[in-house]
Amino acid sequence: MSMSLLLAAAAAAGSANYIPSSPDLGIEEGRCRPNESGPSFLITLAGLKDRKGRVKVELYPNNDDDFLQDDNILVMAGKAFRRVEMPVPQTGPVVLCIRAPAAGNYTLSLLHDRDANRKFGLSVDGIGFPGDPKLGWSKPKARSAAAAVGNGPTRITVTMQYRKGLFSFGPLNK
Questions:
Q1: Which domain of life is it from (predicted)?
Q2: Are 160 and 112 in contact (CB under 8 A)?
Q3: What residues does each domain of the chain span?
Q4: Is the backbone of residue 97 left (phi > 0), alpha (psi -120 to 50) or beta?
Q5: Contact call for residues 42 and 152 (beta carbons, < 8 A)
Q6: What is the DSSP-derived secondary structure letter of residue 62?
C-alpha cells in the first residue's frame, strides 16, 4: 500500500458503502498452478531490503479509477482483481506468479511486508510497481505501473522501493 492508498483507504472507511477488505479475496483466482500455460506474470523482485516477512502482489484493471481500488468493490463490480502472497524465501531469487484473467495490460502493486502484519508500514515496508515509477505522496498513474501479459507466462522484474527520508521512496541502491 502506498501513502496515497492509505489516504484513499481512510477516505473510503468514512463512506457508507465501505466493506472491510478480506486478505484472502482474489487469492484462489490469482494462484498459479503447476504446469499451467495460461496468461500469468512471473515477477522477479529486485532490491529487497532483507529476507524478512512476506511479499504480496495484486493485479488490477489498467485504469486510474480501478488501480489500487478496494478489492471488494472490484470483485463486486466483476472487475479483474487477483492477489498472491508468500513468505520471503531465505535464499535464491524471489519470484511471484500471479494469473491474469486474459492476455492484456494490467496494473500491478507489490508489497514487502517486512513484519508480516498485513498492513503497510510507511517507515518499514517496501513497495514496487512495474516500470519503477517515481513515488511520492500520491499513487502512480496506472500507465506507469502497468505491464502486458500474453497468452502464456510473461516474465517481468520489479525493483522494490523503500522510504528514503521524510517525503520520498526509492530503490536501496540509488
A1: Bacteria
A2: yes
A3: 3-12+27-170
A4: beta
A5: no
A6: S
> Which of 83, 67, 62, 77 is closest to 139 using CA atoms?
67
Q: In degrees to the nearest 10, what's the CA dihedral of 138, 27, 107, 11?
A: -30
The upper half-sphere exposure of residue 61, i.e. CA atoms within 13 Å in the direction of its Cβ, equals 14
Structure-block grid coordinates of residue 70: 478496494
Q: How remote is the C-alpha of 50 from its chain's centroid? A: 18
Other CB atoms within a 10 A radius of the CB of residue 130 amount to: 21
Cβ-count burial 36-50 (b if 16+ within 10 Å, e if not): eeebbbebebebbee
For residue 38, CA distances in Å to 33, 71, 95, 138, 150 come to 10, 23, 17, 33, 8
SS (H, E, C) 113-172: ECCCCCCCCCCCCEEECCCCCCCCCCCCCHHHHEEEECCCEEEEEEECEEEECCCEEECC
The SS3 call for residue 108 is strand
pTM for this prediction: 0.81
- Compute CA distances 107 → 18, 112, 148, 153, whole Å: 23, 17, 9, 16
